[in-house]
Amino acid sequence: MHRMTLSRPDDYEGWRDGARAAALAGVAADAIVWQVEGEGVDLFGGAGDPLPPPRLAPFAVSKRFLDLAETVVLHRDPERFALLYAMLLRLRDEPAAIADEADPLRRRLEQLAKEVRRDIHKMRAFVRFREIDGAYVAWFEPDHHIVRANAGFFARRFATMRWSILTPELSIHWDGGSLREGPGATRADAPAGDPVEALWKGYYASIFNPARLKVGTMLKEMPRKYWANMPETALIPELVAGAQARETRMVERIVPRAQATGNAGKAWEALREEAAHCTRCDLYRCATRTVFGEGPVDADLMIVGEQPGDQEDLAGKPFVGPAGRMLDEALEAAGVDRARTYVTNAVKHFKFEPRGKRRIHAKPNAGEIKACRWWIDQERAIVAPRRIVMLGTTAIHSLLGKATTLSSVRGRALELPDGGLARATIHPSFLLRMPDKARAEEEYAMFVRDLKAAAE
Ligand code: URA
User: Are 174 and 93 in the same domain?
Assistant: First the structure.
């Protein structure tokens, strides 16, 4: 029996090197015990038999498998290293097995990876910082060994703050310039909450209405184990919105500094990465991907459309299909340089109805617009554009916070509820649908006028 000892529970490189050496030496999966230094029961003692020298020709495995392995290693399942090694041996003989969805081993590994990704997402969504002496400290209990792998995300997202995240296995600290690791902590090591949080809790306790409690929704959004970390956790759905407001405020406090210190790009990258895993409404289930905004993070002008269309969904970029071409033409006529404009959408996933082989655009509803407002608010906070153009009623609904007709707001500068100036105009796809050429030309001219006015 051979023994492979890894230096840490998330030691992907250790697993990869050990697995490669064992595979080249022709060692079978059931002839290896994988263990982590300082962990687990010593079943047979001793150092194990040394690996025989390599006797097989080197072989390559796909990046897809290596990515899967890198994620699965973070799982808490003690069998993860052995399962990955068994898969590696399978792929050596049968590389196509990585795409075989019926294969039970591959399915098990995919399931482990899914659980890890979910845990990573939960940490990103549910870490709550408490402020002490200008530094921020959070307590978090992950299900899997994800803390080290997630540290870079927090460093990018909260680049300008000093913060620590304490967890039972490991603590990570960011001093505004570099990450440092420390030993695990206990809940008692984390501060219990500052006066602001006490106020926050008090406020929600006073409006708590048990008749409106929807525990199922709450549990789905925010698993019970995280409630204790979150200052705003009275058990009411409104608190989900409350938590978002808190985080938005925190981001707002950081963002002017982010622009000033040149960190807006990093904050935007982190936001886009987070949005790529968005499940705030059901649209992610059918769309290919999140289509995030695009353009300079210090743009003066932001253009907000409705949602990606079929081509945008495939390309992962906003306004690249027919409506995008119409927009480009009008922008040029208005003297606006798209390359200096931040272009985004009120809703970030393509909503459609399948019809045969085609995907027919469907208008996002009020719930979807509201769910996605989270992203546009943060894009606005980071880019801080001086002017915004809202294309069509979905963008207007999103930014004004309520359904509003275009005719009631067109032609003047509007002050948005949270500050900032915006102008409303038609959506370019409206022009594409107009059968009457003369009217389409008139509408186009008005569209160009609106864009010009917004940019001036
Ligand atoms: N329509 C939109 O509103 N946005 C896009 O990105 C494409 C089409």
Answer: no
What is the average per-residue pLDDT within 77-92?
A: 97
102: in domain:
yes
Tell whether ligand 1 has an atom less than 6 A from the beta carbon of residue 197: no
79 and 181, same domain (yes or no):
no
- What's the 288 CA to ligand 1 centre distance in angstroms? 15
The pLDDT, as a whole number, for residue 217 is 46
More confident call, 201 vs 5: 5
Domain assignment of residue 315, yes or no: yes
Ligand 1 center–CA 354 separation, angstroms: 18
How far is ligand 1, taken at its centre, from the CA of residue 392, in Å? 10
Cα separation, 52 vs 41, whole angstroms:
25
Q: What's the pLDDT at 243?
A: 44
* Domain containing residue 56: 2-119
CA dihedral 130, 134, 135, 137 (to 10 degrees): -10
Q: Based on the domain organization, do 318 and 401 belong to the same domain?
A: yes
Least confident of 23-27, 161-165, 210-214, 440-444: 210-214
Same-domain check for residues 271 and 349: yes
Note whether 320 and 437 are same-domain residues.
yes
Position 202 pLDDT exceeds 90: no
Spell out the residues 6+ positions from residue 18 whose beta carbon is closer than 8 angstroms to its own: 4, 6, 34
> Does 306 share its domain with 444?
yes
Q: Which of 312, 393, 398 to mutate to test the pocket of ligand 1 (most atoms within 8 A of CB)?
A: 312
Residues 264 and 381 in one domain: yes
pLDDT at 151 over 60: yes
Q: What pLDDT score does 358 carry? A: 86
Which of the listed residues 319, 352, 393, 398 should we mutate to test ligand 1's pocket, taking the one with most ligand atoms within 8 A of CB? 319
Question: Crossing angle for the helix pair 63-72 and 80-93, nearest 10 degrees?
Answer: 170
Number of domains in the chain: 4
CA atoms within 13 A on the CB side of 16: 16
**Which of 67, 101, 119 lies at the terminal end of a domain, its last residue?**
119
- Residue 339 neighbours by CB distance under 10 Å: 8
Sort 328 into a burial class: Cβ within 10 Å, 0-12 / 13-18 / 19+.
Answer: middle
Q: What percent of the chain has pLDDT over 70?
A: 83
Structure confidence at residue 134 (pLDDT): 73
Asked if residue 103 is part of any domain, the answer here is yes
For ligand 1, the distance from its centroid to the CA atom of residue 291, given in whole angstroms, is 10
291 and 406, same domain (yes or no)? yes
